[in-house]
Amino acid sequence: MSYIHGIQQTVMPDDYLDICMPFGKVITYAASSTIHDRGSKNKGLSIVVAGDVKIGNYGLDGSYQITTILQRGDTFGEFTLYASLARTHHAQALTQSKILQIPEPAFRSLINQHPEISDFISRSLAIKLHAALERLDDIRRLPTYVQLAKLIYQSYLTTQSDVIPLRQSDYAERLGVTVLTAHKSLTKLYDLQLIEKRYGGIAITNVERLKNFLKDSSSLLPL
């Protein structure tokens, strides 16, 4: 299901997190410290217990392109366990963060004893893949201002708040565009009266109108 129609759960609930805790070690990372680098082949599951984790990669020019920000209950490192693949992104603590690190042998014990954890992670991975494929389609088909509108609406679905505390530079990083392009896209959405300026961010003027705008602009049949 597309997030235009609702958001699927990929955050591990607290009762599942409690099950996982004895199988790993909680490590505290200071803000701006590296959790792992792209290309790392260290197998294990990482779960955010507290704080914010920035996931992204550096370009050839040294600029950082953010992919997402993870918070409590978000997991990463699954591909190292399920497919023996290297880590695809650089993970950095955005704020002081506590991460539950579960090495591969302990992870195998965890899912053998608690198959519901494996079921949750498999479903979460499917949802993440769905979102990644939809994002790739957005990049290929949609104007930047429509991509930005989808990002704003997704933020609303996640927080259930129509006030989104993101700056132009944040939008630029999330979309992989320049700050000038992000500014032009924001201006377009202002002109369409879908959003309005707020200190430190924006506010959705009418959630239902934004939702309908995305349905009309995306031009794909709903899933």
TrEMBL record:
Pfam families: cNMP_binding, HTH_Crp_2. Keywords: DNA-binding, Transcription, Transcription regulation. Residues 29-128 form the Cyclic nucleotide-binding domain. PROSITE patterns: CNMP_BINDING_3 (PS50042). Gene3D superfamilies: Jelly Rolls. It comes from the Bacteria. SMART domains: cNMP (SM00100). InterPro entries: cNMP-bd_dom (IPR000595), cNMP-bd_dom_sf (IPR018490), Env_Response_Regulators (IPR050397), HTH_CRP (IPR012318), RmlC-like_jellyroll (IPR014710), WH_DNA-bd_sf (IPR036390). This is Crp/Fnr family transcriptional regulator.
